[in-house]
Amino acid sequence: MRLLFFAASLLLTTACAPQQVSVTTPTTPPENGQVVTGGSVTTAPASTNTVDPVPARVAESDTTARPPWLKARIAAVLAERKRNPITRILRYQYGGQTVYYVSAPCCDQYSNVFDTKGKLVCQPDGGITGKGDGKCPDFDKNKTNEQLVWQDPR
């Protein structure tokens, strides 16, 4: 046991020991913008940051014919603090009717599927098991015509 502890300590000490690293970056590019090294020409490094953050992908929402209850639900989400993951509302055809899928706010909470009048049809996913409330176990297999209705833009 003592030998195991010693070996683990030695491994941690060696792996976590500070290492000296020297990095030099030219601050002024050559006048012609090219560097010649060993007979080959390469482009000089840019003097400004060339890595831009990737803009958030914002899918186009279908704003046509949002029922009043759905507009109220969207307003309620916007009145709360931003959720992670963000709330998304998708429209599908399922079980011979148009339904709206509202993503779960977080973790083990249920996602909800509503009919066009705003009545809860089922909760297809989420919960402790991740399988929802069991009232529409075939939702993922049988939903069709996905259309993004809204997603939190914040």
Please, could you describe this protein's structure?
The protein is α+β, with helices and mostly antiparallel strands and 154 residues long. 19% of the residues lie in helices and 23% in strands. It has a domain at 72-151. It is elongated, with a radius of gyration of 27 Å. The model is unreliable at 54-59 (pLDDT under 50).
Would you spell out the secondary-structure blueprint of this structure?
Blueprint: H1 2-15, E1 34-37, E2 40-43, H2 68-79, E3 88-94, E4 97-102, E5 112-115, E6 120-122, H3 139-142, E7 144-151
Antiparallel strand pairs: 1-2, 3-4, 3-7, 4-5, 5-6
Outline of the structure:
The protein is of the alpha+beta class and 154 residues long.
Query: Biggest sheet, strands in spatial order?
Result: 6-5-4-3-7
Count of helical stretches: 3
Secondary-structure element order, as H and E? HEEHEEEEHE
Main beta sheet strand tally, sense and closure: 5 strands, antiparallel
Q: How many distinct beta strands?
A: 7
**Integer average pLDDT:** 78
Alpha carbon gap, first and last residue: 54 Å
**What percent strand?**
15-25%
Look at the helices and sheets and give the structural class: alpha+beta
The whole-angstrom Rg is 27 Å
Large-scale geometry: elongated
Give the low-pLDDT segments. Answer: 54-59
Helix content: 10-25%
Signal peptide: 1-17
Domain DUF6970: 77-152
Region (Disordered): 130-154
InterPro entries: DUF6970
